[in-house]
Amino acid sequence: MIAAVIVDVDDTLCLTEEASFHCENDVLARMGRPPMSRERHLATWGAPLLEAIPHRSPGVDLREFAALFPAMQQRYLADGRLDVIPPENLATLDHLVGDGRTVLLLTSREEDEVRHLLAPDHILAARLGGAYHGGNTRFRKPDPRAFDELLAETRLTPAECVYVGDSPGDALAAGGAGLRFIACLQAGVRRRDEFDDRFVTATVDTFPEILPVIRQWDAGR
């Protein structure tokens, strides 16, 4: 049986790339800098923000951007424009928990970028068994060791887990760690042909479609 379903945050649980693109451009505008193109944002999507922004906006003052970004992020969150979890995705988490599975998050975000998602009053609070991020893991995807702390602390084996993500790096990390991987293409950010078939166990067009896939595995199909 699949005991744990580990879920990526960006463009898997939440559809965040487009909102993040606008949020980052609003920060650049505050700095008096020209906007980045959507193509440039997509080309570096998935990398930690402060590593990616110099490529998205060459010559940017990284310290100034880092100082201005949190307030803009909070504004987007307050306006309901960022980290919005579709109701059908929440319902899917409820079904997973109802099936007796543990739901965990694993993301490359830094701790301050996920703190609001892990707050005791957040809608995820009763649905999550834990979360792993830049603040409590030593390695980042696509390094397979990104799962080290999760597996050690939960005492789960890779065979008991599946990782659901949206990027080739997610697949590489999961496959390298011995986990099954479901590629979720709902955000439209990635194409199926961008993934290495060796590391993809299944592909779905929407997050809720992971339910029948996992249940079929449990049934031996």
From TrEMBL:
Pfam families: HAD_2. InterPro entries: HAD-like_hydrolase_sf, HAD-like_sf, HAD_2, HAD_sf, PGP-like_dom2. GO terms for biological process: DNA repair. GO terms for molecular function: phosphoglycolate phosphatase activity. This is Phosphoglycolate phosphatase.
